[in-house]
Amino acid sequence: MKFPALALLVALALSALPARAANVDYAKSEITFVSKQMNVPVQGRFKKFTAQIAFDPKNLPASKAQVEVDLASIDTGSSEADAEVGKKGWFNTSAFPTAKFVSSSVTQAGPDKFEAKGKLSIKGIGQDVVAPFTAKRTGDTVTYEGGFLLKRLQFKIGEGIWSDTDTVADEVQVKFKIVTTGDK
Amino acid sequence: MANDPQRYTGMAIALHWLIAIAILCTFLLGQYMSDLQLSPAKLKLYSYHKWIGVTIFLLVLARIAWRLGHRPPAPPPSMAAWQHHAAGAAHFFLYALTLAIPLSGWLMSSASGFQVVYLGVLPIPDLLAKNKETAGQLKELHEALNWLMVVVVALHVAAALKHHLIDRDNVLQRMLPFLKQRSVAK
Question: In a designed cystine with A76, which of A81, A100, A148, A182 is the match (CB 3.0 to 4.6 A)?
């Protein structure tokens, strides 16, 4: 009776795995941010990123998220700034092309409200971040929406003359909306 | 201030020169800043330019309101009718442009995706949504209106100097309190 034993083994192995990763619908997902220049809020976004999300509200310890952002795909809101922020003093995209977030824990913060804690790495610098988010399900589609306040100087984003926070504020509000399908 | 029929009121004179100086400063600033490479200084100068523009707009509104309640002194009777019309048209254009130029700048800023936050504290609502094409057209409009302004101001200054140096009447004195009025045959 080899076959049932194998099936049992596979079933056991699967249950031990983290929640199954869902397919991300990138057309509906976005990572945006608001920076402040001379106290003027300016909208920006990243056009390219990949996300792996395994989320089960009934099994939060097994829930995980990993997001990788292609920093060169930035749209800062002006073409002049797009050309600037790839440079060494900013993201230095030739040496550090991506920003990466890897969750370490997901906890419940209220009804449909959660908190993802994890490490955000940009420019070779890792910082702990906490991103509150909501998860709304319709059918097999789940929409995750949340954000966090990023302090750009902690990651040396904007060095030298640009470290002047009177001109470009230290705080950058990062927002994400990630839509997954095929989640059961 | 006592009403002198030969002069503009002190308030009108103060607003005229304040606006003139602000326009000169922000015009030159606008010329200078647009060619700069992106830097914190450039972001600052752009903000200052916008703040001065908003200030000019407000001062011009104040000036128009003041003018409605305080008629300007009558022009010298020696002036020909066509000169009255020309001066009237030039003044109308100056008022219109000093309002239209800040407005076009504000719309251009909105269309470029940069809200104007007056003095860094008072956000002025965006009338237009961000749109690259619209932003480009408004930039051209803002520049064209400025060059039109240069032409009208040049005519305005030339006319004032002509009155003072050639006609030798009191037209310039009406706006320059420290110049002595001449006794001109009426």
Answer: A81
